[in-house]
UniProtKB/TrEMBL annotation:
Signal peptide: none annotated. PROSITE patterns: CARBOXYLESTERASE_B_1, CARBOXYLESTERASE_B_2. SUPFAM superfamilies: alpha/beta-Hydrolases. It holds the Pfam family COesterase. Its EC number is 3.1.1.-. This is Carboxylic ester hydrolase. InterPro entries: AB_hydrolase_fold, CarbesteraseB, Carboxylesterase_B_AS, Carboxylesterase_B_CS, Type-B_Carboxylest/Lipase. Residues 95-605 form the Carboxylesterase type B domain.
Length: 627
């Protein structure tokens, strides 16, 4: 019996050799099952994988499950069996892994529609906690090991961020059930989801997810990699990185160069390269993927010399490095404004930095709520050696297989809520559309360009509904679509295999919460790519998905999983996805059908990249001649 209780295997049905039992006490075994000569005992779980049903099955791998009645001659046998079941119910869902840093205990997670789920290891440190004056506003340092068994069954602290903004976002996704941990400066952790039925020597593709949130909000605990891991037989890693001031404060020089959140991502990828084999992953087959600021991060990692050898494919969903809005060419004014708002001395940069490294968290949180203080990416000379446009133009990038794309209504609702006035869904005035363009064209001399754009997207402006629709289209084009096509062109021209998509479907639970004019909004694809119709953990849908939505989710997961395995999204039973080449072919992804197209948003792309550029150059020449 001792040997029985020590023989726990990390599967949904935990199996044991019947060496310690007297088989004369087993009766009524089903006779229509061909089994191996060595009988096996199985403990069977109910719907909850942590609860063991108190009866046994005699079975072997090719057999069906049949109930077995036990007749025992002594109370001792029954007592031993009861003790073993109780012990197993508490431990059968646990899984341990040894790494060079120490031993980890994870847990079994079930996935709807799959006989076998995954093992989840949560809150694994990939860097030293960035605490104290020496590690705050500094590059991450490798993690230290630990003694004994580390519990990896709980979500890690999320990084410091504006929780009001987070809760507002979650409220808009009210069909999602999620439970967020506390926020802390100690937040450099990652979560791993690996198939429970993996072979001991498995070398599965690895998919590293980088969350979005404008480099201001987001966490690993807002996502779940269990369904994608189970359905695609891949190891999913979800990482965290420092946000806002703590992640992107910069003095504009070597003293505090900034981009620490991006350096956190590099450190996480280094950890994956060194340790992922312990979880069944192949360190030489790593795909990075992310959405929004996560997609921007993916695109930036492709431009950084620090990334070489850390990943082998990349997917940027609704966010690329060509998005000017997330960059700051001159971080010094923001540094000074933040220092002034914090009561720090402006006497020297050194005094500012010393003060900022000793600020209390409440002050940092208050700075994060100031809409005039944007802590974003800059050209630091280390992570980014040159401005992004120059790197793209000169094709100084990693030419790994690259997938990118957008949703067909990126500015349809969530983003529009941040820029539009109250009651905007009922219609908008023309002048409000022009005001939004100050984000992209802020100078007084840009007024003719702003007027031309408004005319292009909303016409005369007499129709308030058309103004609204033009406004949302403009948001999506300028923030996401045009930059995505620019980046796809750069990678294609550099010689990389590129796959471009336009995603069209909004999950049912989101459609019923939005105005009817909203199509596929920013972030909608995440729910199907990550298979939230099938998750059972802290991140899951409140209601069951329609059957056709589940099927489309399996299609989306297959495209993404195939890309991670082979560098191409194509596979058996899927509509062919053409490479993005000189003909500019792409794939439209919708629930009812997937169909190839050509020259995504060609008219708008030419207008923004050629017509507006010619006007801007003409204005510059006029100004130069007047001097």
């Amino acid at each position: 019996m001792t040997r029985l209780m020590k023989s726990i295997l990390p599967t949904r049905r935990t199996c044991f050799n019947l060496i310690d039992f007297d088989l004369r006490h087993v009766t009524n075994v089903a006779r229509n099952c061909t089994c191996s000569s060595k009988p096996i005992i199985n403990l069977v779980y109910r719907e909850d994988p942590q609860e063991v049903v108190g009866f046994l099955l005699v079975d072997s791998a090719p057999c069906s499950d049949f109930a077995v009645n036990f007749q025992t001659t002594t109370m001792k046998f029954r007592l031993l069996f009861l003790v073993s079941v109780l012990l197993l119910s508490a431990t059968a869902d646990l899984q341990e892994v040894q790494t060079s840093l120490g031993r980890l205990r994870g847990q079994y997670v079930s996935v709807k529609g799959k006989e076998t789920g995954v093992h989840a290891f949560l809150g694994i440190p990939f860097a030293k906690p960035p605490l104290g004056p020496s590690l705050r506003l500094a590059a991450p340092q490798p993690p230290e090991g630990w003694q004994g068994l580390r519990d990896a069954t709980k979500q890690p602290n999320i990084c410091i961020q504006d929780m009001d903004m987070v809760n507002n976002l979650i409220e808009k996704l009210s069909g999602i059930i999620t439970d967020l941990p506390d926020a802390s400066e100690d937040c450099l952790y990652l979560n791993i989801y690996t198939p429970a039925n993996r072979a001991p020597d498995a070398k599965l593709p690895v998919m590293v997810w980088i969350h979005g949130g404008g480099f201001a909000v987001g966490s690993a605990s807002m996502f779940d990699g269990s369904a994608l891991a189970a359905y695609q037989d891949v190891v999913v890693v979800i990482i965290q990185y420092r946000l806002g001031l703590l992640g992107f404060f910069s003095t504009g020089d070597e003293l505090v160069p900034g981009n620490f959140g991006l350096l956190d991502q590099i450190q996480a990828l280094k950890w994956v390269k060194e340790h992922i084999h312990n979880f069944g992953g192949n360190k030489d087959l790593v795909t990075i993927f992310g959405e929004s600021a996560g997609g921007v991060s993916v695109s930036l990692l492709l431009l950084s010399p620090l990334s070489h050898g850390l990943f082998h494919r990349a997917i940027a969903e609704s966010g690329t490095a060509a998005m000017d809005a997330i960059f700051m060419n001159y971080p010094v004014p923001v540094m000074q404004a933040a220092a002034n708002a914090s009561g720090c001395s402006l006497e020297s940069t050194e005094k500012i930095v010393k003060c900022m490294r000793n600020l209390d968290i409440d002050t940092i949180l208050a700075l994060g709520k100031d809409p005039n203080l944007r802590f974003v990416v800059n050209t630091d000379g280390h992570f980014l050696t040159k401005p992004v446009p120059e790197l793209l133009q000169k094709h100084e990038l990693l030419t790994v297989p690259f997938m990118t794309g957008i949703n067909n209504h990126e500015g349809g609702f969530v983003l529009a809520e941040y820029f539009a006035p109250p009651n905007w869904t009922e219609g908008m005035d023309r002048e409000l559309v022009g005001n939004m363009l100050l984000i992209f064209f802020p100078l007084p001399e840009d007024a003719p360009i702003r007027d031309l754009i408004v005319k292009k997207y909303v016409g005369s402006g007499e129709d308030r509904i058309r103004n609204r629709d033009g406004f949302t289209e403009l948001l999506g084009d300028f923030f996401f679509t045009i930059p995505a096509i620019k980046v796809a062109n750069a990678h294609r021209d550099a010689g990389a295999a590129v796959y471009l998509y336009e995603y069209h479907y909004a999950p049912k639970f989101l459609r019923i919460k939005r105005p009817s004019f909203v199509k596929s909004d920013h972030g909608d694809e995440i729910f199907l790519v990550q298979g939230y119709c099938f998750t059972t953990t802290h991140v899951k849908l409140a209601d069951a998905c329609p059957e056709e939505e589940e099927e489309f989710s399996r299609i989306m997961m297959s495209y993404w999983g195939n890309f991670a395995r082979t560098g191409s999204p194509n596979g058996h039973g899927l509509v062919d996805w053409p490479k993005y080449g000189a003909e500019e072919k792409y794939l439209s992804l919708d629930l009812e059908k997937q169909v190839s197209g050509q020259s995504l948003k060609e008219d708008q792309f030419i207008f923004v990249t050629q017509t507006l550029e010619e006007i801007r150059k003409f204005q510059e020449n006029v100004e130069h001649s007047e001097l």
